[in-house]
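Incident review: delayed structure delivery

Summary: a single-chain prediction request sat in the queue longer than the usual turnaround. Root cause was a stuck worker, restarted by the on-call engineer. No data loss occurred. The affected request and its eventual output are reproduced below so the record is complete for anyone auditing the incident later.

Affected input:
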Amino acid sequence: MESLNDQEREAVRLKMAGVLSNREIASLLDISVGHLGVILFRAHRKVRTRLEELAHE
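Output delivered after worker restart:
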């Protein structure tokens, strides 16, 4: 998670808690639901890339 910026980290944390809807998360972060989707997609890609890098070390 260290590869994520603050907004990505917070979005992932809230999403993984499983309590709030995307609309509620977006509202808390003061962004649109569409932008939340982009943030979560990018965060997922960053984490996946980092895990792949660690697997090859």
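Verification: The two ends are 18 Å apart (CA to CA).
Action items: add queue-age alerting; document worker restart procedure.
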